[in-house]
Amino acid sequence: MSSNDIIVSLDIGTSKVRAIIGEVNNGAINIIGVGSADSEGIRKGAIVDIDQTVQSIRNAIEHAERMVGIQISDVYVGIQGNHIALQTNHGVVAVSNEDREIGEEDIERVVQAAKVVALPPEREIINLVPKQYLVDGLEGISDPRGMIGVRLEVEATIVTGAKTAIHNLMRCVEKAGLRISGVILMSLASGVISLTKDEKMMGTVLADIGAGSCTITIFEQGGLAATSTLPIGGEYVTNDIAYGLRTQSDQAEKIKLKYGCSYIGDAAEDVKFKVLRMGSNVEKEFSQVDLASIIEPRMQEIFSLIKQEVRRLGYHDKVSSYVLTGGAVTMPGTLALAQAELESTVRVALPDYIGVRDPAYSSGVGMIQYVSKYMGVRGTTSTVKKAASSRKTGSTASSKPGMFERIKNMFNEFI
Asked: Residues with Cβ < 8 Å from 215, sequence gap 6 or more?
């Protein structure tokens, strides 16, 4: 990676599509632009309407472009969902240099060897995450560059996904007039920015609670151990509020964001608000305690399901703490409720950058950090140029490689 690069991440969620522009200057990351748009065509984290999703992506990208005054052409796209699976594999190669010094080419060859794995025809590799390298049997090596050896091995975690979900995601991004530099597992990206090195070693559950889904990722021994997605999130809280207060969903969302509290003990009886009831022109007054009595049971259920899923995955006694992120954990009282329900050490993680200090941006900012840290050697960072003309609303330029051609070659992008 050169001394000054631009990386653009695209986080396509159930409630929002977020485009984040990061500038990498000699290893330091600055967030220079953020664009967001209401997400249409996404249900529970899955694409259900291509055209609506494409329009949401265009809106988010144009918002980010206006903020910075540039035109975005390349993006890194985040992917998640219950179709994601992990498996481990081993790669072995002989060191090619005559002086037996391990170089970039050897690392690339051993990573490609680890990707040779039998997969069902409907699945595809998304990411490969090296757990450790071995040089002539010596274990625990994180970066073998420059070492001397004859035999280079890698133990890696392979992240796979359903081809249908991957191709539909890529089709939406391409129809929005963008090129895809890479597809990144969002929980992996969130882990880069949300967890410390010690937390990854000791065993930690990262719970990314969005609007339509909750992604649970378990990190152990410094790497990815397990991942799972539950189809429940913040929009269920909104639906409960709409039903409980007899009001429209959009009004319920505004009330949740302004007055919502996850823990009844933290709610104030003297904080009042009025709600326009459905099918009536009459407003009724409620207190924050009334609202919290609706929100708390649903949030309790979410944390209870997270705990059950961690137990089902076999890590209940192996994890030392929980880290929460995602847009649904921003409500006051969430941390106190989570600590009581999960019966463990819990904290909320958020990016420490101006303009994105919100758990909802963890995945997008994490993708920029992931690319900067692990994919920079490929030189595949996003390119931008000064906006000289409006964005094409049709398909991308004909000189661009086709989608399926790039799918075939995209494995080379992940190291």
From this structure: 80, 186, 187, 207, 208, 227, 228, 229, 230
| Residue that is written with structure tokens 């129809």 in the block | 175
Quote the DSSP letter at residue 101: B
With residue 63 as reference, give the H or E element that holds it. Answer: helix 50-68
Give the residue among 409, 381, 327, 331 at the shortest CA–CA distance from 11: 327
> Which tokens sit at 138?
């010596």
C-alpha triplet 378, 382, 383: angle, nearest 5°: 120
Q: Which two tokens stand for residue 338?
A: 């989570």
pTM (two decimals): 0.85
Task: State the DSSP string of 229-270.
Answer: EES--HHHHHHHHHHHHT--HHHHHHHHHHH--S-GGG--TT
**Residue 58 corresponds to which tokens in the numbers above?**
């265009």
26-50 pLDDT tens trace:
878 899 999 999 988 888 778 889 9
Tell me 139's DSSP state: E
Residue position matching structure tokens 């220079």: 32
Q: Which residues neighbour 322 within 8 Å (Cβ) at sequence distance 6 or greater?
A: 204, 205, 207, 306, 338, 342, 344, 345, 346, 347
Q: What pLDDT is attached to residue 221?
A: 87
pLDDT at residue 26 in the model: 80
Residue 45's pLDDT is 76
Please report the sign of the dihedral spanned by the C-alpha atoms of residue 64, residue 217, residue 181, residue 27. Answer: positive
Q: How many CA atoms lie within 13 A of 82 on its CB side?
A: 12
Distance separating alpha carbons of residues 369 and 321, to the nearest angstrom: 23
Which segments of the chain have a pLDDT < 50?
1-3, 377-415
The pLDDT score that the predictor gives to residue 4 is 62
Q: What are 218-230's pLDDT values in tens digits?
A: 999 888 999 999 9
**Beta carbons of 31 and 20 less than 8 angstroms apart:** yes
294 CB neighbour count, 10 Å cutoff = 19
Question: 3-state DSSP: the chain helix, strand, coil percent, rounded to 5?
Answer: 35, 30, 30
Return d(Cα 147, Cα 195) in angstroms, integer: 29
> 204: which strand partners?
219, 321
> Structure tokens of 288?
């924050």
∠ CA 122-124-128, rounded to 5°: 155
